[in-house]
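Pasting as-is:
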Amino acid sequence: MTANILIVDGAPSSSQDLLVANGGRRHGPNYGAALASQAHQSVGGVEVFVLAAADGANLPQGMALSDFDGIAWTGSPLNAYHETDAVSRQVEFARTAF
């Protein structure tokens, strides 16, 4: 059985550009690779879908939260106490998800 995991990338792409320019990887794909490397053999693998929530992305039409076995949220330079669009979108998504 494959585990389907939604990875919510909480860091705006603009903040990850410097990371990539210096040889790093974007948070979502990096987190997905880490999860896949740690999956127990009885799971049969991990499929991930990365949602760029800080950039305003939504689940594609036809995809629902119930399609996933779990949700992982990446780190971010954003602060929950700052009322920006990027933060507000993620707070609303978290309310829906949890």
